[in-house]
Amino acid sequence: MISDKMKRFLVEDENSLVKPANEVAVVGLQNRLNHALLLLTTDKYAVVPVLDSDSKMKGLISMPTIMHAIMDIEDVHFEKLGEIEVGEVMDTDYPSVKEDFELEDVLRMLVNHAFITVVDDDNYFKGIITRSEILKGTNRIAHDFEKVYHVTEKETIAH
């Protein structure tokens, strides 16, 4: 369990931990791969959420996923970029938490993912929690924790 004091430094403001949906680049299920490729390369994203027409979370799309979809053993078929829909090739195994998430769960997931999607009980996309936000908190702990708290080592008990 994360102590309240440590949590205070790790997450300065719990509301700021979640980047809201309206500030996150996303693609739709019916968008073609060429659209996703343009978004990923123009804005330099590694991966973006895929939403249906009702803004429900459906998956993730990335450059490797796109490239895998248009390649075979001998060639890259760029013409397929305008033919294949994102929903046909997206990754449907993605990290996600509900709006009432536990910070410990988020930390565990962010070890292996750059961001975690946040959804409500009906799977509507609410935003993302990024690894960089947690690293900002880690930086605060490393630099400022002892400015606020007096830290002493516990005495070692001999067995």
Automatic annotation (TrEMBL):
Which residue range or ranges hold the CBS domain? 90-145
Which keywords has UniProt assigned to this entry? Answer: CBS domain
Asked whether the keyword Nucleotidyltransferase is assigned, the reply is: no
Q: Which InterPro entries match?
A: CBS_CbpB (IPR048125), CBS_dom (IPR000644), CBS_dom_sf (IPR046342), Diverse_CBS-Domain (IPR051257)
Indicate whether NADP appears among the record's keywords.
no
Q: Which domain of life is it from?
A: Bacteria
SUPFAM superfamilies of this UniProt entry? CBS-domain pair
Any Pfam family the entry gives = CBS
Name this protein carries in UniProt:
CBS domain-containing protein
Organism the protein comes from = Alkalibacterium iburiense
